[in-house]
Amino acid sequence: MARKLPKADVVLVGVGWTGGIIASELTKKGLKVVGLERGKERKTEDYFMVHDELRYALRYDLFQDLSKETITFRGNERIRALPMRQYGSFLLGDGLGGSGVHWNGQTYRFLPYDFEIRSKTIEKYGQNKIPAEMSIQDWGITYDQLEPYYDKFEKTCGISGEENPHPGAGKRSDKFPTPPMKKSPAIKMFETAAKNLKLNPYMMPSANLSESYKNPDGISRAACQYCGYCERFGCEYGAKADPVVTVIPVAKKTGNFEIRTHSHVRRILHTGNKATGVLYVDTTTGEEIEQPADIVVLTSYVFNNVRLLLMSDLGRPYDPATGTGVIGKNYAYQVMKGNAVGFFNDKEFSTFAGAGSLGIVLDDYNGDNFDHSNLGFIHGGSISLTQTGLRPIQNNPVPKGTPAWGKEFKQQSLKYANRFLSVGGQGSSMPFKHHYLDLDPTYKDAFGDPLIRITFDFEDQDRNLAVFLAEKSAQILKEMGANHIDSLKELGPYDITTYQSTHNTGGVIMGADPSTSAVNNYLQMWDVDNLFVVGAANFAHNSGYNPTGTVGALAYRCAEGIDKYRQTGGQVV
Q1: 503 is catalytic
Q2: How high does pLDDT run on average in the chain?
Q3: Which residue intervals define the domain Glucose-methanol-choline oxidoreductase C-terminal in the entry (predicted)?
């Protein structure tokens, strides 16, 4: 029998970016909020002088223990899904702050086109431009509606950016809070080459502070030191915006926020069309505990949000055979294979230094910023050169054709260790009717609950886009003066064993129609009005950008919706 605790105003399942933002906003309004985090406590001091590539980058210290819970994967419905036993394609964060601790900090706004993608594609190219199996839909919100929340997230983080608008960009209500990051010699080369090609490069929007900054909540943070230990690492300076150094302290200061770590939520409790709380396990004791609440908010990662809804029998599970149902629908990923690597005989670069968001990017081939009439894909991707800090264990580039061992391999490794640059495309990912999430019928976690199952593979849309972006990337490297260029020529099947990005999206998508979406544009469940679900699970497709800026904006929008619901009840409009 589970021990029942006193009721809270709000219970959060997960305390990362979304949980931290909602906690900070609601506790300032006087609500009592309980945040349940299944991982451990984290603080900036944990990372002081700990530049340990082996521990964090290769042994995954900040990530979920796959021996206790993982995902299963299959390329299509004709084959059996198998568990992901070791990390490859993406990395699942664990602990206070979640994936917001180990991210790079690249913080974009999606394009206006993204939020009305189906309508705008049909308007310009006609219905036949969309493949029959592609399930894109409008998001039920416009860029202009979401813009104030983008602005709020950027000011919370102190995003460092350049004011030059790029093609197709939405209008900004205010400038970036801090100026752009420093331009390295490699970045300057890319900028010159891109402009020679009549393209429009700009400095990447960065959550690594370019200068010291105090945000509107009074949180002060120091500037980035360009140490190169961002992705897969916590920041010892607090320069990289993460929930632990931005929004969580604000919520805790109110006295209205209680965080319980080592709390693994197994079910959302509900009666009729109302959520009543959650059931969780204290993993330090094994005790089952019931936390009642007036409002339940799912603020964990994509896979766990979908899994909890399915295990709790909330929402209508997606059925790929009929296209009906919504929970698990429109899983999408990212096309990260539009890459080219240039090797230079007469130039050296200090690529060991950098920051997670130190880079230069262009959007001339993103969204619908270029004509797709004669192309075998819609949307596109951003193209960038980043200098995130190449650490010694993971990086040993040599030109294609070099033997994998022996004298020549050693010679080429030494020659090109500091004489190569990568230019790559981050491509969008369109949903298809046969790409979805559901519960695996065979494999279970340490508690005996079914794992989430991914059914996904690359389509012609992705293959055509990846080669297109690779060709454009190679052109830039050629203009930069690379002596030898290796670039993608063909995109094979999706490979879950090779790291690409932790940009998993979809499964609890937002929209204007309850028959085709799980939540409204305040991220409130259509079926259960006191249950909110917020995160990249809300994306109806994935854009050619990193998702966190849009996740942060949606979290602020959701917090506003929860406050409205508290005052009026029913569906928030």
Answers
A1: yes
A2: 96
A3: 437-555
